[in-house]
Design goal:
Shape of chain B: globular
Order of helices and strands of chain B: HHHHEEEHHHHHHHHH
Strand order of the largest sheet of chain B: 1-3-2
Distance between the termini of chain B: 66 Å
Oligomer: heterodimer
Number of helices of chain A: 6
Number of strands of chain A: 7
Shape of chain A: extended
Helix content of chain A: 25-40%
Radius of gyration of chain A: 28 Å
Structural class of chain A: alpha+beta
CATH class of the domain at 32-93 in chain A: Mainly Beta
CATH superfamily of the domain at 32-93 in chain A: SH3 Domains
Helix content of chain B: 55-70%
CATH architecture of the domain at 32-93 in chain A: Roll
Mean pLDDT of chain B: 80
Number of helices of chain B: 13
Low-confidence stretches of chain B: 7-23, 33-62
Strand order of the largest sheet of chain A: 6-5-4-1-7
């Protein structure tokens, strides 16, 4: 009787362990990146850039895994394929990511605080600092000395091969009364 | 019991709302009434105000300040008046965070900024741009064409197109007069104070009285719609200037990666919708509208890097 009890006690942790481990393995392997969802139909491209070949086409609402980003492009993994879509075509489901961020941040805080102190004169631009701010005429005058006039700016653009393009303002997606709406 | 309580609360809210509206109207009417006599000449003696110590002709002394008030209240501030308010806010902001001592950087930012502003419907405002000494991640605009970004935000940028997008967002606030509208909404009380409280002697005092303490107006925050509108304008202006249209979204995504508890973004997140919401709004606004647009420049090569 006593032996049986001991045996049971010995077995129980083993049993729970055995039951707990199997499902963990596959989930860890099958989830590269973070969850995301397609906001619109878009081509999945081999590399970031509109000139790159299309590997697949994704549809609005498709679930994807967000891997990384490069400027205005986001790398995603969807239905066995990896490629790039426009940054505005996919939405990161950041809930878990930001929770993680908070955890990491709290862990980092002491080092961060030290850093802030070390930078001479650099303090947070918070409401208190802004409210207490006193007019600085000298700095305002200094700002004037850096002004670029129209000709200066145009030459600067030309040197980089930047040319003006005609692009209409974007409408308010919520149809709120704003600038671009052509009222009745 | 619970029911009656919720009724009372609902009723109270209703009263509060009604009163707020009426009060606002009351203030405006009152100020209008108070200001009317200053417009025409005052030949009749009885209206003479309690004269301050100085023996000057009151009409001549008070005119600019009154005009400024009136212009603001009616929403018809001239470019000069707009600039006057912008100067006061900017001078105060610079008092809290001075310009980064790097002539090359400041000139570079002014050239990029002016080029982007030239794509707007107010190309000839006296646009001024500055990078200010703060490790926070933030950017500010003041009426009349004053635009600032913090060194902390600048250091997060990867190329000129991203800088153009950030400046474009702030330019959007200026050209749509978002801060002027905010002032207009909140200034009725300040204006009243100037009439019934201590008599303000000059324009400087009037302007400072309007904008509140120091540069707190930039910490007050605009409404969400104004921020979303500025995002749409910033994206379009930088794309018009020849830059990558998706650079501003890239900056928003980058800011979204900063922990929300990080102190360097606390004011930014307090005064702006969260980056993921801004990206969602931009995505909806853009839709397929830019699909045919040739890719713009990123300008990595000549981006001015801070050491």
């Amino acid at each position: 009787m006593k032996n049986l009890l001991v045996l049971l006690l010995l077995l129980l942790p083993g049993l729970t362990l055995a039951m707990g481990t199997p499902p963990q393995k596959p989930t860890a392997v099958a989830t590269p990146g973070t969850p995301g969802v397609m906001l619109r139909n878009d081509a999945l491209r081999a590399s970031p850039g509109t000139a790159a070949a299309s590997v697949a086409s994704l549809n609005r609402g498709d679930k994807v895994r967000v891997l990384t980003s490069d400027g205005g492009w986001t790398q995603v993994h969807a239905s066995g394929k990896t490629g790039w879509v426009r940054i505005l075509s996919v939405k990161s489901e950041t809930a878990t990511a930001s929770d993680l961020g908070v955890l990491v941040e709290t862990g980092k805080r002491p080092a961060d605080a030290g850093k802030v102190v070390a930078v001479a004169g650099a303090r947070g631009l918070d409401e208190v600092a802004l409210k207490a701010a006193r007019f600085d005429a000298e700095e305002l005058a200094r700002m004037d000395t850096y002004v670029a006039d129209r000709a200066d700016a145009e030459q600067f653009a030309q040197r980089a091969g930047l040319a003006s393009r005609k692009i209409a303002y974007l409408p308010d997606p919520d149809h709120r009364a704003t600038s671009t709406g052509n009222a009745p | 019991m619970k029911r009656t309580l919720s009724w009372i609360i609902a009723a109270l809210c209703g009263i509060g709302l009604a009163q707020a509206g009426d009060f606002d109207k009351f203030l405006k009417d009152l100020i209008k009434e108070k200001m009317q006599p200053t417009a025409p000449a005052q030949p009749t003696a009885p209206t003479q105000p309690v004269a301050p110590s100085a023996p000057v002709v009151p009409a001549a002394q008070e005119k600019p300040a009154d005009q400024l008030l009136k212009a603001l209240l009616s929403g018809n501030a001239s470019q000069e008046e707009e600039l006057r308010i912008g100067q006061q806010i900017s001078g105060n902001l610079l008092g809290a965070a001075p310009l980064v001592r790097d002539d090359g950087l400041q000139r570079y930012v002014n050239r990029v900024g002016r080029w982007v502003a030239l794509q707007s419907e107010r190309p000839d405002l006296p646009w001024r741009f500055g990078v200010i000494e703060s490790e926070d991640l933030n950017a500010f605009a003041a009426p009349g064409g004053y635009i600032f970004l913090t060194k902390g935000l600048y250091k997060r940028l990867n190329n000129e197109a991203e800088l153009a997008g950030v400046l474009g967002h702030e330019i959007g606030h200026v050209i749509r007069k978002h801060h002027l509208k905010l002032l207009q909404k909140s200034q009725a009380i300040a204006a009243l104070g100037s009439f019934f409280g201590s008599k303000l002697k000059n324009e400087n005092e009037i302007v400072q009285n309007l904008i509140g303490n120091g540069a707190e107006i930039v910490a007050r925050g605009l409404d969400k719609d104004a921020e979303y509108e500025a995002d749409r304008i910033g994206l379009v202006l930088s794309a018009r200037a020849g830059y990558d249209a998706y650079a501003l979204p890239a900056v928003l995504a980058e800011i979204g990666h900063v922990a929300k508890s990080d102190k360097r973004v606390s004011l930014l997140f307090k005064t702006h919708p969260l980056p993921e919401d801004r990206l969602g709004q931009l995505s909806e606004a853009v839709g397929d509208r830019l699909d045919g647009l040739p890719e713009g420049q990123s300008g990595v090569g000549r981006f001015y890097r801070l050491r």
